[in-house]
Amino acid sequence: MDEGGSRIRRRVSLPKRKRPSLGCIFVVPTAAELERGDEKKEEEMVAENRRRKTAGVIPVEHNDSEEDMFGDYDSFTENSFIAAAEDLEQKYMQLPELRKHATDFATENVCSESIKNKLSVTPIGNFTELQTDKHTENQSGYEDVTVEPGADLLYDVPSSQAMYFENLQNSSNDLGDQFMKERAWKSSSHNTVNEELPHNYIEQPQQNDESSSKVRTSSDMNRRTSIKDHLKSAMTGNAKAQTPVFSRSKQLKETLLSEEINVAKKTIESSSNDLGPFYSLPSKVRDLYVQLKGIEKLYEWQHTCLTLKSVQERKNLIYSLPTSGGKTLVAEILMLQELLCSRKDVLMILPYVAIVQEKISGLSSFGIELGFFVEEYAGSKGRFPPTKRREKKSLYIATIEKGHSLVNSLIETGRIDSLGLVVVDELHMIGEGSRGAILEMTLAKILYTSKTTQIIGMSATLNNVEDLQKFLQAEYYTSQFRPVELKEYLKINDTIYEIDSKAENGMTFSRFLNYKYSDTLKKMDPDHLVALVTEVIPNYSCLVFCPSKKNCENVAEMICKFLSKEYLKHKEKEKCEVINNLKNIGNGNLCPVLKRTIPFGVAYHHSGLTSDERKLLEEAYSTGVLCLFTCTSTLAAGVNLPARRVILRAPYVAMEFLKRNQYKQMIGRAGRAGIDTIGESILILQEKDKQQVLELITRPLENCYSRLVQEFTKGIQTLFLSLIGLKIATNLDDIYCFMNGTFFGVQQKILLKEKSLWEITVESLRYLTEKGLLQKDTICKSEEEVQHNFHITQLGRASFKGTIDLAYCDILYRDLKKGLEGLVLESLLHLTYLTTPYDLVSQCNPDWMIYFRQFSQLSPAEQNVAAILGVSESFIGKKASGQAIRKKVDKDVVNRLYLSFVLYSLLKETNIWTVSEKFNMPRGYVQNLLTGAASFSSCVLHFCEELEEFWVYRALLVELTKKLTYCVKAELIPLMEVTGVLEGRAKQLYSAGYKSLMHLANANPEVLIRTIDHLSRRQAKQIVSSAKMLLHEKAEALQEEVEELLRLPSDFPGVVASSTDKA
User: Fold this and answer.
1) Is the predicted pLDDT of residue 452 greater than 80, yes or no?
2) Matching InterPro entries, A to Z (predicted)?
3) 1009-1039 burial, b if ≥16 CB within 10 A, otherwise e?
4) Phi/psi zone of residue 684: left (φ > 0), alpha (ψ -120 to 50 degrees), beta?
5) Where are the strands (E) in 611-668, listed by range?
């Protein structure tokens, strides 16, 4: 109702298809209404009839025009229903003044009742929740709809229906008392529980009206007979009609339903987004956190952050807390608010593929329960542009690179405003290499193109926050909260010192190590690692960070040599299961180091492991089967694996001295919330490093600086190419203006010493033009003013669409062009060569004997590929035998072909262990090569889609990308599409009879636990939830495709013209 009551609406109840029970459909008069005086009975009788028809008197039968509205009546006799209906109609037509009075009276009642009730209508996905102060819910399954007072409902509703409603009302007297009790009970329960109803349901207060006596007058027989004949004739005609008959009542129902939806939409837009008691979210969200994650209460800082004024006003926000402080939960709640309350899509950017998959597994259950999609954008996965959903919203979880491509596609299709929120985890990575430059480009584009998209950034290691605040136009929140107290120690020789900022030299004596060392042990373990780890394992967990991968393996073996045999008995059965599962995923192969260390509960963790091995070991560590990891620094920034004690083997990462940021991330793993009461970190150092370490523990965190210009081809040039390709900025002035709004623009005074930002902008555009990626157009605005506009070439568009490093785009084009001259399709070797990543070639050092052996085993067709590329067997033979070579051969082509041999062997054998041994490469390196090739193959596919001359590659690369992504037998691919299901798990599931996505989506987690070895309840639930989510996504995409095919095209001839004429 509009303010001031200027517009008066009536409510009409429209019947649903489902028949309600009699016990909940009648309206009983209130006591106040029964006490009215007799002198108004005649007037109120008609008014009451009107109100009953418009305020919720509900028929048992359906009254669509296609159905028999007369129920079981099969004759038209003297006392028939039709006769009574005709009498009522005649009486009513004779009382125009009474009807007018009744209308005014009913309208006034409705108006006054509406004013008394304050309705709060708010959206939640496809649901609408409505709260009332004192009225009951509409339990009957009918809709209350508002109509304008100008429409006279009594003329629109046939008199037969009106009489039918009245008969039902009168028959309700016997059930009145019972219904009043039920309604009182429901009303009281409604005050305590917020009900959620489907979107097309809106709770309205039901009105209690007076009951009236039946209106009956007699009529003459001839007239009734004529009515009977007329009705029989009409009904017979309708039944024989070939086309459906649309009644006025049905048209009225559709009109009213349409108006109701419009009113609801306006109410939603004007009201707050408060859907419930849990930070504007329904209590169901809180229940899910308890059920799925065991989180019953938020920390105080989380509550403070979520209730910040800046957050309520949807301002951009940066927040920083120590590792393990619970940052992610705040981000998740904000994302759910956006998805459910604001009804917009959300993008979450995470640094690594493993973390993306972990997050998808964790949030798929929320998506299933709350009605939104969770989509993976990592590696070769992700759809560009993303599927435009009909109703449900999407949560995109992406790596930095895929997040950038996603934002580009949304800008290009004009859908960037559909992105309501962008969350960036590990925001400090904006200052790290080419990935930092890509992250900066992504955020700068969002800031420039969408004024409605909110950006939330979080990190544990931020220092120069002011620069980031200025760049993101964001508020800042920080806290030093940690759920578990962390104590930091230094160990020099056999003495342990506690770090104390108040002490003179930054540390105070704590204790001596009490561990009896034999002479042999002192030589093998000079750093007393065995003494430090045995203080906590096996009952508590421990992480030992080592400088290098080889050191991780050596330390793990050394510790196990000196552990007592008692450690073998701890969870012995479970450790045997881990070893068996490692053998299964390695097709019978098992790393000899792990074979010796796992029985003691110890394992190493670094990039040399395959994804399957890493996942299995992490699961075993999380469940307490393994109690000690020796690991590299990458674990600190990867998946969440906390420990009671964290030991830093040395203050070095490889050969470089430890940075403050790295140190904070490593020690942040100490202390497991809900398990430990305290966390400890011990940094082992030598006397020579003491001074540097004391500086390390006292100095502030390192500043992060823009990498946009330092990463030339992956940074500023790629940015300019995409700005022009997406038409964000197409002339020099606009591009320069955009650059001033970047993180680099904020820091230009610090970063630029020799050249100005304008000079760098001009130079970069000149370089892109010379390389054939841009074309410059000069427009003379006046005699003095000249404007330089740029547009992208076909090669430029292909490069930015494929996200190809501009250092390699011309080489890629040349290789693909040359490939067309003699593309060998008898095997996959030629295509595999074309999709081998260029950036891995420089790191490759071929084993020439292995190279020669593999070369000599090639088929004639495969040798033809090598000949086309200019690599001969004689050249490889001479390199293998150490002979001098006079003929000049491109080293990059030779190295790239060697890596292609590795990938080709993988595609044929699908066994990383076998290929690793064949080429004498670490299995982790082989898998990283495979992952990189799958991602690059996807990029080359997008590159070829933009160039008509490369049409032949499109279909070929779709299949090759899929093969490289999964690299397993074809029957396992459907299972591996599910997030978190890797090859080893897919084999287990397939053997157990789960052979398709549908099988997994309908699986019972409890049955899975019993069927699949070493599968926890949490993992089983995540697999089933992820499968359901993927199945729903595919079904939704197909439904959208069907609707698109059936939808009338917007450019259909006559559509625009007719709409113009109507206007």
Assistant:
1) yes
2) DEAD/DEAH_box_helicase_dom, Hel308_SKI2-like, Helicase_ATP-bd, Helicase_C-like, HTH_61, P-loop_NTPase, POLQ-like_helical, WH_DNA-bd_sf
3) eebbebbeebbbbbbbbbbbbbbbbeebeee
4) beta
5) 628-631, 645-648, 652-653, 656-657
Residue 531 near residue 632 (C-beta atoms within 8 A) = no
Say how far apart CA 714 and CA 800 lie, in whole Å. Answer: 11
Q: Would you call 210 helix, strand, or coil by DSSP? A: coil
Report the distance separating Cα 891 and Cα 946, nearest Å.
30
For residue 337, what is the DSSP state? I
Give me the domains of the chain, ranges plus CATH numbers: 283-478 (3.40.50.300), 485-698 (3.40.50.300), 714-792 (1.10.10.10), 808-844+891-1045 (1.10.3380)
The helix/strand/coil state of 653 is strand
Residue 630's φ and ψ, nearest 5 degrees, are: -100, 125
Radius of gyration of the chain (CA): 37
Both tokens assigned to 825 = 């399709």
Nearest to 166 by CA among 9, 294, 48: 48
Cα–Cα distance list, 951 to 817, 944, 955, 1029 (Å): 11, 7, 8, 33
- Percent of the chain at pLDDT > 70 equals 73
N- to C-terminal Cα separation, the chain? 28
Place of tokens 């048992």: 60
Query: Is there a contact between 765 and 720 (Cβ–Cβ < 8 Å)?
Result: yes
- For residue 334, what are its two tokens? 């904000």
Tokens representing 21? Answer: 């029970």
Any idea what the Cα angle at residue 459 is, between residues 706 and 433, rounded to 5°? 30
Secondary structure element (H or E) that encloses residue 545, with its range:
strand 542-545
Residues 258/19, Cβ–Cβ less than 8 Å: no
Residue 273: the pLDDT is: 57
Pairwise CA distance, residues 688 & 492, whole Å: 10
State both tokens at 289.
Answer: 């956190």
Please say whether the beta carbons of 790 and 777 come within 8 A: yes
CB burial class (10 A; 0-12, 13-18, 19+) of residue 539?
Answer: exposed
* Residues paired with 124 in a beta bridge: 127
Residues 6+ apart with CB under 8 A from 947: 794, 795, 798
- Cβ 133 vs Cβ 117: under 8 Å: yes
At residue 492, the 3 state secondary structure works out as strand
Per-residue pLDDT at 424 exceeds 90: yes
Does the structure show a pLDDT above 60 at 825? Answer: yes
Pairing of strands 143-147, 10-14: antiparallel
CA dist 859 → 28, 855, 866, 906, 917 (Å): 90, 9, 11, 17, 22
């939704």: which residue's tokens? 1036
List the one residue out of 388, 326, 324, 294 whose CA is nearest residue 1036.
Answer: 388
- How many helices (H) and strands (E) the chain has is answered by 48, 24
CB 318 within 8 A of CB 472: yes
Among 934, 929, 935, residue whose Cα is nearest residue 915: 929
C-alpha 364/C-alpha 200 separation (Å) is: 26
Q: Check residue 455 and report its DSSP letter.
A: E
Enclosing H/E stretch for 423:
strand 419-425
Amino acid in position 682: I
Model confidence pLDDT, tens digit, residues 960-969: 999 998 888 8
User: What confidence tier does 156 reach under pLDDT thresholds 50, 70, 90?
Assistant: very low
Residues 866, 872 contacting (CB under 8 angstroms)? yes
pLDDT at 247: 54
More confident residue, 706 or 190: 706
Helix (H, G, I), strand (E, B) or coil at 373: strand
CA 520 to chain centre: 54
